[in-house]
UniProtKB/TrEMBL annotation:
It is a multi-pass membrane protein. Belongs to the MreD family. The chain crosses the membrane at residues 9-26, 32-48, 76-92, 104-125, 137-159. The keyword DNA-binding does not apply. Keywords: Cell membrane, Cell shape, Membrane, Transmembrane, Transmembrane helix. It is found in: Cell membrane. GO terms for cellular component: plasma membrane. This is Rod shape-determining protein MreD. Its main location: membrane. GO terms for biological process: regulation of cell shape. The lineage of its organism: Bacteria, Bacillati, Bacillota, Clostridia, Peptostreptococcales. It comes from the Bacteria. The keyword Cell membrane applies. It comes from Criibacterium bergeronii.
Length: 165
């Protein structure tokens, strides 16, 4: 396969390291809502990597499967989420002005909201009689806020690093 090169292998290894770190070390910290660092990593890789799009989508699917094996209650939960995120961002990558922080953040924030809706639907699926409580809604809002804050900071650093090059 012509898309496999050393850069893609390094992206996969760093993603696996982030998945293991998130699944082991970061679970010991009791935060209101823990940011999904692997999702943010996939955002940055899909938007700013100069690799071809297909290997990035496959890498995100593999990272999702590994993350499912490590921490998910349902198999396919993160793999579908990461796959759809990578497809959307690689499609939008060429249509964005990637050096404009507001445009990139708006697209990523929209993907985060869609991802939170997906997680809500996927979490409620086994419990059809579950009434959405305030705690459930607040946890989704905390998920979106914590991820968007970390994503904003990561995008800010990435855009400054890309401009320096």
């Amino acid at each position: 396969m012509s898309g496999i090169n050393m850069k893609n292998i390094i992206i996969l290894i760093v993603g696996i390291f982030i998945a293991i770190l998130t699944a082991t070390v970061l679970n010991f910290f009791d935060l209101l809502s823990q940011p999904d660092f692997l999702m943010i990593f996939i955002f940055l890789v899909c938007l700013y990597s100069k690799s071809q799009d297909t290997p990035l989508i496959i890498i995100s699917l593999v990272l999702g499967i590994i993350y499912d094996i490590l921490i998910a209650r349902y198999q396919g939960f993160y793999s579908i989420s990461f796959f759809l995120t990578a497809v959307a961002l690689t499609y939008l990558k060429n249509k964005l002005l990637r050096d404009k922080l507001s445009a990139v953040f708006f697209v990523c924030f929209t993907v985060l909201i869609i991802n939170a809706i997906y997680r809500t639907i996927f979490s409620i699926y086994p419990y059809f009689n579950l009434i959405i409580s305030n705690k459930f809604i607040i946890s989704n809002i905390q998920f979106i806020l914590s991820n968007s804050i970390v994503l904003y900071l990561a995008l800010l650093i990435t855009i400054k690093a890309v401009k320096i090059r």
